[in-house]
What does this fold into?
Amino acid sequence: MFPQVQQSLCGRLIDLEKRVLDHSTEIEHWFRSQWRSHSPPFYGSVDLRNACFKLAPVDTNLFPGGFNNLSESALPVAVQALMVSVETHCPDIARVLLIPENHTRNSFYLANIARLRDLLQQAGLEVRIGSLNPEITEPTEFAGQTNLGDAFNLLVEPLVRQNDRLGLKNFEPCLVLLNNDLSAGVPPILQGLVGQKVFPPLHAGWASRRKSEHFAAYNSVAEEFAQRLQIDPWLINPIFRQCRGLDFQARLGEQALADAVSEVLSKTQLKYKEHGINQQPFVIVKADAGTYGMGIMTVKDPSDVLGLNRKQRNKMAVGKEGLVFSDVIVQEGVHSFETVDQPEGSAVAEPVVYMIDRFVVGGFYRVHVERGPDENLNAPGARFVPLPFEEGCQQPVVGAEPDATPNRLYLYGVVSRLALLAASRELKATHPASQGLSPSLSVLTP
Amino acid sequence: MFPQVQQSLCGRLIDLEKRVLDHSTEIEHWFRSQWRSHSPPFYGSVDLRNACFKLAPVDTNLFPGGFNNLSESALPVAVQALMVSVETHCPDIARVLLIPENHTRNSFYLANIARLRDLLQQAGLEVRIGSLNPEITEPTEFAGQTNLGDAFNLLVEPLVRQNDRLGLKNFEPCLVLLNNDLSAGVPPILQGLVGQKVFPPLHAGWASRRKSEHFAAYNSVAEEFAQRLQIDPWLINPIFRQCRGLDFQARLGEQALADAVSEVLSKTQLKYKEHGINQQPFVIVKADAGTYGMGIMTVKDPSDVLGLNRKQRNKMAVGKEGLVFSDVIVQEGVHSFETVDQPEGSAVAEPVVYMIDRFVVGGFYRVHVERGPDENLNAPGARFVPLPFEEGCQQPVVGAEPDATPNRLYLYGVVSRLALLAASRELKATHPASQGLSPSLSVLTP
It folds into this structure.
């Protein structure tokens, strides 16, 4: 069931895999030193794209919502990583308040929250779930079924704010763990908490986070890593440009966007030439603050972004919870030449790697039966077939071929950790205190 | 394949399991605080005995030799635990020198070393193997097969001492990892190393370690734990007495030994009465510094230790590598009422739990088809069927029965961690520096 790659394209990938394997001791040593000076995010997931000639992260989610898609074999590692994370960040805590997204009717998402609750409990924490959703006015029980077929119950309670502390009725947490990405802004009830840790920090939410800042941080991480391995950083890094002040509805900034598209396309074309790659370049235009696969467009020609029709403009302008986008990033498209057999035929697959603290804990494939290798697979309303990794991502096998499954997964884990490290640097750089604002002013509403 | 317990006896065990599950958050919180003040051993394994009315550790091995018996599902957890251990104890290191036991012809043990080498490599360390065995005078390749059927090669090299540093030809390690329990004493080549970490420390070797000191430390750990859980500490702790200055060959000290046996038997009988247990008490007499299941005797009556025949005396007097025992501990015998079906019929099984740093990484059952529930299963020359745990030990399931497999394994993990914590306190108490000797005087030869 492990996805197939197009062998004819894979010369460069095998070179990269070989180089990473040969240097795995040095790579792990470097990661150890990096994590000593950069605190890893509490958790995260990274969407990778494997074009066979390059392998790159295209999205780093700091509020991962697919813990339910991890295979059972990943769970012991996840529990242990949570234990380490708690010891590192907050050894004194015993009680966690988990705040989920508001869409409490989505059964897949509920299964994610149930899984996360169980993992936290198994790591030795008392966990209760409190909702920002104003419709939750009293403790409400939700029932569901995991994709392993196990039934679960979820008790979701209304939040209680008392002075500068957040909790539930009869529950005073030491840690507030957000699984809500704050796309709709940071609600007042979360602002100005004193004496309670909040992970991820509020400024990691999409009310203030920008993909362009993440990928700027990733540029420097990829650069450093590539220098150590003596590889072209482009092999693990998509080119991007930010484009600000757009108004899709009013058609303002279209030409600037087309220029950015043109620039990224021609830089990509140059790289293709340099590496002898016979593919058509494309870019992905996506909202700088977008999530849930919303506000994303595949573009192959600069003129494609001129004269968008109303439907296309609407799609690009408005994201999750009605957030209006005015900034986008134009990112080099990375083909996904991984496919997996589905009942309907061959389907494009992209790896999603899950991390807790500085550890890769597992992952799965996002599989789309109706999309091509140059399209976004995180598409709302479309089918989504999780395909759990059967093996861990931290077990390279020295004697095996560089593209043997454990070695490929190790490479995926390494590149995902590069993105995680970028997120760590990004959060440090965008921390309100680093920007000359006091932490109490850190709260942004859109 | 999970071993069966004798349900009719299990009332108390289920009480204990229930209590541990109900308090798992508090227990994990307590462990977190303990590990902040007590550094965990690098690794360890604990032999448990489940008598259904009590569950206790009977041996704690600080040089575990059965990593090859762990299930494949345990490996990602083991790699991650090694990563954490390295980060905690020696974040700067990149190169490890692994020193195995000298019996390099034992293929099971070679498989253990191969597994350990692979795990360390996967955790991102450069590992080479150096032997204390004087027969290894040049790099020697050993080939073998794991119990999963995979072939392995092991390159074992002669140690090179240069001034105050230990290494191999062209290899300068930062860390010396001992998988050799130093029963034959601490060889000069390991003494007085400067600027290299040695794990476990030399005083953890059997040249100086004493079971009685371990179980004295375990007494206080079990006491504290039992007080928190409001249980009788005896439920997790075997009674013991130390008996020193014996000379089995010369028949000196037999009466003192018989008295100690008598005392432990009658204290056990009292506890059986208190808890309504209808079993015959027995004791295990074992060398205070013994290992490899050598120098062990099951005794049901004090007179059994009077007038031992020559064969019995020899068995008790001499251990691994010819070490002569003069001290023993007389430990309350804990029945093993766990059995597993084997082709020959029902066989007694005892859990062996493996830990790296402060984490339970897996375990297996030691299964013996020719031994009774009141006998030592770690018996040389007899058949031994390791049965890996199929599930992790850190995933209690709140809704499930207290004796459901994941919950029973969680209990095993908790009790094993108590023994690990005892080992940590023991090593601190027996550290030469705590005993008024300078570290350079720490080296004991028998």
User: Anything to note?
Assistant: Confidence is low (pLDDT under 50) at residues 437-446 of chain A. Chain A has two domains: 4-65+209-428, 71-199. The first strand of chain A starts at residue 4 and ends at 5.
